[in-house]
Specification:
The structure holds two protein chains of two kinds.
Chain A (H helix, E strand, L loop, with lengths): L1 H71 L1 H9 L2 H14 L4 E6 L4 E4 L13 H10 L2 E6 L5 E10 L3 E11 L1 H11 L2 E6 L5 E4 L12 E7 L4 E8 H52 L14 H28 L9 H9 L7 E8 L2 H8 L1 H15 L8 E6 L2 E7 L3 H16 L2 E3 L2 E3 L3 E8 L6 H18 L3 E3 H4 L4 H17 L2 E10 L4 E13 L3 E3 L1 H11 L2 H22 L4 E6 L1 H4 L4 H11 L7 E6 H6 L1 H14 L2 E7 L6 H5 L5 E4 L1 H4 L6 H16 L3 E4 L5 H9 L4 E2 L10 H16 L1
Parallel strand pairs in A: 15-16, 18-20, 20-21, 21-22, 22-23, 23-24, 24-25
Antiparallel strand pairs in A: 1-2, 1-5, 3-4, 4-5, 6-7, 6-9, 8-9, 10-12, 10-15, 11-12, 13-14, 17-18, 17-25, 18-19
Helix pairs in contact in A: 1-6, 2-3, 6-7, 9-10, 9-23, 14-15, 16-18, 18-20
Chain B lengths: L1 H13 L7 E6 L10 E6 L15 E3 L1 E3 L2 E3 L2 E5 L2 E4 L8 E5 L6 E6 L7 E3 L3 E7 L6 E7 L3 E4 L5 E4 L5 E8 L10 E5 L4 E6 L19
Parallel strand pairs in B: 1-17, 3-7, 6-12
Antiparallel strand pairs in B: 1-14, 2-13, 2-15, 4-5, 7-10, 8-9, 8-11, 11-12, 15-16
The chains are: A alpha/beta, B mainly beta.
Chain lengths: 752, 214
């Protein structure tokens, strides 16, 4: 619509301007025509009047000359001189015919007529026009328009007869009638009418034109004749206007033709301008709809062509940028695999009711590898893993990298068996060693599987369930776990757990068990870790992994931790008073670490029970630190200022780097049990643990190995400089009372 | 002018034994001396008081020279014959339609065979049919006592016997005839100034002279 209106506007402006200009021209021509006609009419009238007057004079002179010649004729004079009436009458009739005078009158010098051709006069009558006679006596001759008694108008010429003195006058009359008027009209180009002033009749008329003077459409001018007569000259204005009207008519035709040609031309021109614009706007609409593929039609060299060129650049620019944005939005930069967003979107496109499996794959101890060998190696490892997993993706499935070393498959339509089979294939593929820079890396992985729709209806739930299953698989070293096997209890059971925990805290169902920590250098027990135990009256002993994550999730941990701290500090006070030189470790969760009163409460406990600060150690997980690093650091600084030992728990499963830990007031690093489990069997694990110990020492941290189960492991750790060991291989967690007995035994054993 | 002088001389000689001369000055009403006026002294009684011995010259001439009549005005006594010698190289056709003497001398050169005798008193206007501007005027009078004013408007008539006379003026272009005066001629010369309302002669243009047109 806008394009047609633009086309119309261009045409309208062009044609409108032309019409305006032409209209002005026409108006100008019209007004000047009117002026010229007016002037021309006046001029023609003036010229006509002058010609008429001139003609009258000439006529009169000719008549006078003719009359003079006649009057000088010797025989004529001789005849007149005879004074013989019949002779004189005869000669004037004869000579009058010679010069076509209708009236001849001979008058004596006394003013009495001698002879006349008019029968109405007799000899001796006075000459009827004494004024002419008087004028002739003064000037030698005279002439004038006179009406005879018969009513006819004549041009009368009076000349003397000289012999050689004047002996008589001869008057000659020439008829002034309509024919005469027509002759005059033919010469002057004007209508000629002779009137007597004050009387209505026409004495002579050329006939054409209106009779009255100054009629409509007729311009007139009066030329006074003598004897009270007037010649009225008429000029029909239409006669003057005619050529101008013809001119205006032709001009109008030319204007109409020009406007038509112009309109056609401007419409065509506008079309030429607008067509590429239409193409452009169509292209712009396509681009707006997201179709960047179709190139623009080839551009011409003009401004619109340049615009089209810019448009084409814009199109390709947008296309490539969108490509990049889509890549950034949906593609993992590192591995070129789809990212989490893309994964969730793919899940959204699952056929409802068709079933499917969400499978989360995680590389064991990746953070440790990352820290030990550097990020670049870690990145290359991830790319290699992606390369190994990519060929496994079945049609309709998708492999995404969620974050870190967490990969996820979406298997459309897969059931339990298909998922298990696929998981085995994944684990088998990952068992192939990865070679980076000629160095062989053995990697192991865990797989957690959640089934749709059994384990959840949305991607977030399924992913969480799959991750929980993965965690279970890792704990159990089973490689693969299904969410349905490890999944949380039914919802009502979880809800009752909150109430149970609150009740358990009041009823004293929570207890602390203490696991000794052996200093490998001295062979002494230097500390114990306080571990939370729940003896449920109906369900019996509930594993910490079952309720602690739940307590953290619900925030109830904030009520449990103070009890744990108080109990641990009180126990430490007892042992301190009894002379045991051991420190007590307690675990802090993320929420605890963010509690602004943490430092004050800990100091209050220590003061209340008179326990030296060095007898208390607080263990924090990496993930707790990462939630709010600034806050965590502030509180850790506060705690460290009290003189309390700080330890990083489960080191190696999270993302924290040693470089970050170095900036914290941390004393100790606890290697996750998963690293320790196979150090004596996997050279790779051994290398990682060894380098971690070395790095920690370099940073001034002591290293605690968790989950030490065998004497071989213990020996290896001792040989490789690990500071402290903890695990079933040394002692299981036990009550405070059991610990005192165990310690006595241990001291006795080691010193024996 | 010479012929008229001859006439005057003759008159003077003839009247030498007579009474005193009459001297007249003719003027127009505007006071301009009028030439070519005829001054006539006519006896009151009908007797022509002219002694036979003093017979007037019965012959006069009006010649054509330079396509003009010379003299323009002539006064003669009744019975005088006038010759019209043509001294031009072109021919002339002299005519008169005037009542006292009608005549016509058709195209001629030199001296025509017979002079024209003017035997009746009156005014005769003479023209040439070939040259319209040529004109001459002849006044034929009975009295023998007459004269023509010169360019100074004066004329003298001698030899008039004493007695009572009527003094009359005439001019070819007079507008009206002047009333005659009565005079007494004695021994003493009579001097009079008279007024005549007339146009002075104006030479007419020779319309033929524009030969260039032909």
């Amino acid at each position: 619509m806008s394009s047609t209106s633009l086309r119309h506007r261009i045409a309208i402006v062009f044609v409108g301007l032309l019409v305006l200009v032409m209209g002005l021209v026409l108006a100008l021509v019209h007004s000047s025509s009117a002026r010229i006609v007016e002037r021309e009419t006046q001029r023609e009238l003036a010229v006509g009047a002058k010609v008429f007057q001139r003609l009258l004079e000439q006529n009169q002179r000719q008549l006078e000359t003719a009359a003079g010649v006649l009057s000088a004729d010797f025989a004529f004079r001789e005849a007149i001189a005879t004074q013989d009436q019949p002779t004189v009458r005869s000669v004037i009739r004869n000579h009058g015919q010679r010069i076509h005078a209708q009236v001849m009158m001979v008058t004596g010098t006394d003013g009495k007529m001698i002879a006349t051709t008019q029968s109405t006069f007799a000899a001796g009558d006075p000459f009827p026009f004494p004024d002419l006679l008087a004028a002739a006596e003064a000037a030698g001759r005279s002439a004038g328009f006179r009406q005879m008694r018969n009513g006819q108008l004549y041009q009368v010429v009076l000349v003397p007869i000289l012999a050689p003195t004047r002996i008589a006058w001869v008057a000659m009359g020439f008829l002034v009638d309509d024919r005469w008027a027509r002759d005059m009209a033919g010469v002057t180009g004007l209508g000629v009418h002779i009137v007597r002033a004050g009387t209505p009749g026409l004495l002579a008329t050329s006939g054409n034109g209106a009779t009255g003077a100054g009629g409509a459409g007729v311009a007139s001018v009066g030329v006074p004749l003598d004897g009270g007569l007037q010649a009225v000259l008429h000029l029909p204005v239409a006669q003057v206007q005619a050529p101008f009207e013809l001119l205006q008519g032709r001009l109008l035709a030319v204007i109409v033709a020009a406007v038509l040609v112009f309109a056609l031309g401007s419409v065509m021109l506008a079309g030429r301008i607008v067509r590429p614009l239409n193409d452009l706007s169509a292209a712009a609409r396509r681009i707006a709809l997201g179709d960047y593929a179709q190139p623009l039609p080839p551009a011409q060299g003009d401004e619109i062509g340049q615009l089209a060129g810019s448009f084409e650049q814009m199109r390709t620019g947008i296309a490539s940028r969108e490509d990049r944005i889509v890549r950034l939005a949906y593609v993992d930069e590192l591995t070129d695999l789809p990212n989490r967003t893309r994964f969730l979107e793919a899940f959204g496109r699952l056929t409802p009711g068709g079933g499917g499996a969400v499978m989360v794959v995680n590389i064991d101890r990746f953070a440790l590898i990352n820290n030990a060998l550097g990020h670049l190696v870690g990145d290359r490892l991830l790319r290699a893993v992606a390369g190994q997993l990519q060929p496994l993706v079945p049609p309709g499935g998708i492999l995404a990298r969620l974050w870190g070393d967490q990969f996820a498959f979406l298997l459309e339509g897969a059931g339990v068996d298909a998922a298990r089979g696929f998981a085995d294939a994944v684990l088998a593929a990952l068992r192939d060693p990865v070679t980076l820079d000629g160095q062989r890396l053995d990697i192991e992985a865990g797989v957690g599987i959640a089934l749709y729709p059994d384990d959840g209806l949305d991607a977030a739930t399924l992913l969480r369930r799959a991750e929980l299953a993965l965690a279970a698989a890792k704990r159990r070293h089973s490689g693969v776990a299904f969410a349905s096997e490890t999944g949380a209890e039914p919802a009502h059971e979880q809800l009752s757990l909150i109430g149970d925990m609150r009740r358990a805290l009041l009823a004293g169902e929570f207890t602390l068990a203490y696991q000794p920590k052996l200093a490998l250098g001295s062979g002494r027990i230097v500390a114990v870790e306080a571990l939370l135990r729940w003896q449920h009256p109906e369900r019996g002993s509930i594993a910490p992994a079952r309720f602690i994550p739940f307590a953290e999730q619900t925030g109830f941990i904030r009520e449990i931790t103070p009890w744990v701290l108080e109990t641990a500090v009180r126990q430490a006070a007892v042992w301190h008073a009894a002379g045991f030189d051991i420190a007590v470790s307690a675990n802090l969760s993320t929420l605890d670490l963010l509690d602004p009163y943490l430092g004050r409460r800990v100091r209050g406990l220590l003061e209340a029970h008179a326990v030296p600060a060095r007898r208390l150690c607080l263990e924090i997980t990496e993930s707790a630190l990462m939630d709010d690093p600034a806050q965590a650091q502030a509180h850790l600084d506060e705690l460290a200022a009290l003189g309390i030992k700080l330890s990083i728990d489960d080191y190696g499963v999270g993302q924290a780097s040693l470089a970050y830990l170095k900036s914290l007031p941390v004393d100790e690093l606890k290697l996750d049990r998963s690293f320790i489990t196979a150090i004596t069997e996997s050279p790779r694990n051994a290398a990682i643990v060894e380098s971690t110990i070395m790095l920690s020492h370099a940073l001034g941290l002591s290293v605690v190995a968790e989950g030490v189960e065998t004497q071989a492991e213990l020996r290896w750790l001792r040989e490789h400089g690990c500071d402290i060991a903890q695990g079933y291989g040394i002692a299981r967690p036990m009550t405070a009372a059991q610990l005192q007995d165990w310690l006595a035994d241990f001291v006795a054993k080691t010193t024996a | 002018m010479r012929p008229s002088l001859l006439v005057l001389a003759a008159a003077l000689l003839a009247g030498a034994a007579g009474a005193a001369p009459v001297e007249v000055l003719v003027r127009t009403p505007a006071g301009v001396p009028l030439a070519d006026a005829a001054v006539l002294v006519e006896p009151l009684a009908g007797v022509p008081a002219r002694p036979r011995g003093h017979a007037p010259a019965a012959h006069a001439a009006i010649e054509q020279r330079g396509r003009e009549f010379i003299p323009w005005m002539t006064v003669v006594q009744t019975g005088t014959s006038i010759d019209f010698p043509n001294n031009d190289t072109v021919r002339h056709h002299v005519y008169s339609f005037s009542e006292p003497k009608r005549f016509e001398i058709k195209l001629y050169a030199g001296k025509p065979g017979q002079p024209i005798v003017f035997d009746k008193p009156g005014q005769i206007d003479i023209g040439c049919n070939i040259h319209d501007w040529m004109e001459a005027h002849v006044l034929v009078v009975d009295t023998p006592y007459f004269a023509r004013t010169g360019a100074d408007g004066r004329a003298t008539i001698a030899g008039v016997p004493a007695g009572r006379y009527r003094l009359r003026l005439w001019h070819p272009l007079q507008k009206a005839a002047a009333a005659p005066d009565e005079i007494e001629i004695g021994d003493a010369p009579l001097r009079q100034t008279l007024v005549l309302d007339a146009r002075a002669r104006e030479p007419k243009p020779h319309t033929e002279d524009d030969t260039d047109h032909y």
